[in-house]
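Allow me, if you will, to draw on your knowledge of protein folds for a short while. I have a record of one protein: its chain in single-letter code and its fold written as C-alpha cells. The full record is reproduced below for your convenience:
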Amino acid sequence: MSKRLQQLNQWLNNDCQLFEYDLAPASADASFRSYFRITQKNKKTLIVMDAPPEKENCEPFIEIAKRLTAMNCHAPEILKINLEKGFLLLEDLGERLYLDELNQQTVERLYGDALSALMTMQVCVSTENLATYNKTLLTQELALFTDWYLTQQVQYHLSKQETTELNLIFDLLIENHLEQPQVFVHRDYHSRNLLICESPTPGIIDFQDAVKGALTYDLVSLIKDCYIKWPREQVLEWIEGYYDLSMQSGLLQQVSLEQFIRWADLTAVQRHLKAIGIFSRLNIRDNKVGYLNDIPRTANYIIDLEKEYSELTVLINILKKF
C-alpha cells in the first residue's frame, strides 16, 4: 500500500469514523485528482477525492459545489474536508454516466435535463470572484493545439504563411468568445461529467475550473461532445431550442438565431482545438494513450464546417492532413 493510500485510510478512520469498508478506484480525470468509491458493510457508498495539495487545490471545488447546490443543481454534497492533506469525502452520485447511456432513444430526454440544468446555472449561479475567460486564457488554450498537437504529436511545422493565417483564425475565435454574453461556465460540461441520478438530475461533477465566460461554451461542450457525436441537423435543433430559452430568460437580447449559431460553431472550434491539444499532452506527457482515439472525432467537428465557414479554410486544410 502506498504512503498516500495509508494517509487516506487513516483520515477515513480517524476523522470520518469509517472503519469497515472496501475502497476501489471510482474514476480518474485528466488532472492529478483521483477518486475512490467507499462501499460500507451496509452497502452504502461514498466517494473520496484524493487531490495532492502540491498539485491540486480543493478550495475551488468546494466553493463551486456550494454555488451549484444553492441553486438546486446536483453537485455532490461535501461531507468532510481535509485541505491540508487534499482529501474530500463526497456524496456518491452513482456510476450511470451520460456517455454510457446516450443513444437516439435516450438523448432527447437526457439532453433536455442537462440543458435545463445548464440554463439554471447560467441564469442563477453567481460569477462573483470567478476567473474570467479572457483573451490571455483563451490564447493559452489555443496554444495547446500548436504546441502539443502540431509540434509534438504530429510533428508538423507551420510555414510563415500558415502561422500568420492561423493566428488570424485564433483572433477570430477569441473575439467570438468575448463578444457573447458572459455567464457562469462549468468549462467541461459533457457526457463524462454528467450522471443519471436521483432528482435533481443530472448529477454534475468536475466543475472546479469554472469561470465567467461565453454563453455558448457549455452548450457546445454538451452537444458537440468530444466523446460522442450527433448529426448536424440534430445539433442545430438543440442550438435553436437553447436560443429560444436564452431569449425567454433574458440572457439574450436583440441577437439573431444566425448570430447565435455562428457563436456556437466558432466557440466549439476553440474548444475542440484546446481538446486536441490536451489529448496530445495527455499522451506525450502523461502516457495516457487512450485519449488519442478521441482526436479524429474532435477534429472532424471542425472539418465538417468547411462549407459554412470559409474563414477556417487554412485550419481545416491542416487538420485534413492527419
Summary: The domain at 98-319 is CATH 3.90.1200.10 (Aminoglycoside 3'-phosphotransferase; Chain: A, domain 2). The mean pLDDT is 95. The first helix runs from residue 3 to 14.
